[in-house]
TrEMBL record:
It comes from Effusibacillus dendaii. Belongs to the aldehyde dehydrogenase family. This is Aldehyde dehydrogenase. One of its GO terms (molecular function) is oxidoreductase activity, acting on the aldehyde or oxo group of donors, NAD or NADP as acceptor. SUPFAM superfamilies: ALDH-like. The keyword Transmembrane helix does not apply. The active site is at residue 250. Residues 13-475 form the Aldehyde dehydrogenase domain.
Length: 481
């Protein structure tokens, strides 16, 4: 029988209070992998209370910061020790290629390693006021942090926010996506093994509208980190606003690769392909728009499509290049965009079909939509599949205007051998990250990440993230001089 898993609340492995469960499905086969508890508002309430108690208890509150760092370091070590097992589980649950899942697990380990090193370097300031006043600031943890995690990079995104939250002394309630709850539960087990005190880390599995909504609206949380869609992000922000809770939102994008004729075109083409097919296009920072100088438009699109034709599509467990889409719902959504392209008379240069010969799995061909109108929904909305929208441009001013023409602003890739041109654009594009002659800089746990405009606000990764998990207290002491 398929395994029945428990969730982790207050240091105990428990079922949901209602006793209900739901299946998590392998998107490559549509078979259930395991059943997890269907947590709802009362389970969330229990988890938040456990996290509150753990935050007040001296076992966590009074721990020496360097010791807190050591615990985080042990988490990173255990993640690495269990790398193959975790990657295997992530591939079954998300469908992503095994090599990608292994990379995700390594990045998760890196988050804990990176923030382990800063646990005893959360510094305040001394501020000169008057001779008889010693004035200083301390950075304190917020309390209970809520983490609502999407299905595209489950262990990586859970670790991205959990590691800085723990490094700064907070406690946490994690609500993984209903499609992919498995590695968050394993992460909780790792926290338990290394000796994170009970209640400091809690994982409640459940649906977004039940467990997720209850977590975002809980009056006793002190911060929400949400990654997912703009629509859900709006709900989460409204719920947090009711209780005046700070929030970090990462809501995806429609990120452009801007390719000039003077670029290293072979390298640019490889990265254009990689940035849209990684995780079958289900990546918030996917390079889903190609803005290409008109003089090389046809030849460059041909180069990109030749590379795409070589990709192996299949179950992630076979270490294909492109795995399945996460669910039937998402597959239908991608198809609806392709139907729209046909209605708008847009040329489907490559792909555009769900894979009929791939068994029951949710596979979709890598797709190029050529000469998309800048105002089309295909150039504006996040499709979240391996679908590249191509828009040619004549001048650098036009490239800039196209780059900034969506409501999003997460990442921009610029490809040119002229650094003056690259900097001119980098200074003017509205996005949280800009990559010149590369895309992603190899991962970047250390690099500040986050959105402009509807891509969200607040910054994750790097030292910048620490600001969101701490609050500053000013203390003034009168002294005899
Ligand atoms: P979603 O935003 O609804 O789900 C993300 C997380 O939010 C999940 O854990 C979910 O359970 C939870 N959630 C859902 N409804 C909630 C609510 N009312 N209150 C609190 N939490 C809630 O994403 P989705 O519907 O699974 O995917 C739809 C679209 O979202 C995708 O097509 C894509 O465009 C976007 N998306 C973006 C990212 C990203 O990394 N930026 C990740 C996943 C999905």
């Amino acid at each position: 029988m398929t395994e029945q898993l428990k969730m982790y609340i207050g240091g105990c492995w428990v079922g949901s209070k209602s006793g209900e469960t739901f299946a998590t499905i392998n998107p490559a086969t549509t078979e259930p992998i395991a059943y997890v508890p269907r947590g709802n508002a009362s389970d969330i309430d229990m988890a938040v209370r456990a996290a509150q108690n753990a935050f007040e208890a001296s076992e966590w509150r009074d721990i020496v910061p360097s010791e807190r760092g050591r615990l985080l370091f042990k988490i990173s070590q255990l993640i690495r020790e269990q790398k193959n097992e975790l990657a295997h589980l992530e591939t079954l649950d998300t469908g992503k290629p095994l090599a990608q899942a292994q990379n995700d697990v390594e990045v998760a380990a890196r988050y804990f390693e990176y923030y382990a090193g800063v646990a005893d370097k959360i510094l305040g300031e001394t501020i000169p006021v008057r001779p008889e006043i010693l004035n200083f600031t301390v950075r304190e943890p917020l309390g209970v942090t809520a983490h609502i995690v999407p299905w595209n990079y489950p262990i990586q995104i859970a670790s991205r926010s959990l590691a800085p939250a723990l490094a700064t002394g907070n406690t946490a309630v994690i609500k993984p996506a209903e499609d992919t709850p498995l590695t968050a539960l394993r992460l909780a087990a790792i926290c338990e093994t290394v000796g994170i005190p009970p209640g400091v880390v809690n994982v409640v599995t459940g649906y977004g509208t039940e467990a997720g909504a209850a977590l975002a609206a809980h009056p006793n949380i002190d911060h929400v980190t949400f990654t997912g869609s703009v629509t859900t992000g709006t709900f989460v922000m409204k719920a947090a606003a009711e209780n005046i809770k700070p929030i970090t939102l990462e809501l995806g994008g429609k990120s452009p690769n801007i390719v000039f004729s003077d670029a290293n075109l072979n390298e640019a083409a490889q990265w254009v392909v990689r940035s849209i097919i990684q995780n079958a296009g289900q990546t918030c920072s996917a390079g889903s728009r190609l803005l290409v100088e008109r003089t090389i438009h046809e030849s460059f699109v041909l180069k990109v499509s030749e590379l795409m034709k070589q990709l192996r599509i299949g179950p992630g467990i076979d270490n294909s290049d492109i795995g399945p889409i996460i669910s039937e719902k998402q597959l239908n959504r991608i198809e609806s965009f392709i139907n729209l392209a046909k209605q708008e008379g847009i040329s489907v240069h490559l792909g555009g079909q769900r894979m009929k010969d791939a068994g029951n799995g949710f596979f979709f061909e890598p797709t190029i939509l050529d000469s998309v109108s800048p105002n089309s929904r295909l150039a504006q909305e996040e499709i979240f599949g391996p679908v590249l929208a191509v828009l040619p441009f004549d001048t650098i001013e036009e490239a800039l205007s196209l780059a900034n023409s969506t409501e999003y602003g997460l990442v921009t890739g610029i490809w040119t051998s002229n650094l003056d041109k690259a900097h001119w654009l980098a200074n003017r594009v509205r996005s949280g990250q800009v990559f010149i002659n590369n895309y992603g800089a190899g991962g970047g746990v250390e690099m500040t990440f986050g959105g402009y405009r509807k891509s969200g606000f607040g910054r994750e990764k790097g030292l910048e993230a620490l600001k969101h998990y701490t609050q500053v207290k000013n203390i003034a002491v009168k002294i005899q001089i």
